[in-house]
Amino acid sequence: MRSERNILRHEIIGLQCEVVNAKNKSLVGIRGRIVDETMKTLVIDENKRKRIAKQGTRFQIALGGKRLIINGDLLVARPEDRIKKKLKKW
Predict the structure, then answer these.
(1) pTM to 2 decimal places
(2) Which H or E element spans position 70?
């Protein structure tokens, strides 16, 4: 089961997301459902699909009524490899 403690080791496709901080300031405020994930990007379906770099970006993800701020640098990996990664407490 996904929780705030183990979200980095689970699938995030399908969750609601908002960009709260990014190197490219024009991306801040984009919100929608995560529809795809690659090693270095997330695809968010706003009204059209936007591809956003994970590195240097902070995402606010809705999970079970809570809002979590996740540093995109911690997400940089193929989704299937993130499960194997040993992560320090974030």
Answers:
(1) 0.86
(2) strand 66-71
24 phi/psi in degrees, rounded to 5 = -90, 100
Residue pLDDT, tens place only, 8-62: 888 899 999 999 999 999 999 999 999 999 999 999 998 999 999 999 999 999 9
Exposure class string for 42-63: b at 16+ Cβ within 10 A, else e: bbbeeeeebebebeebebebeb
Q: What CATH superfamily classification does 7-78 receive?
A: Ribonuclease P/MRP, subunit p29 (2.30.30.210)
The domain locations on the chain are 7-78
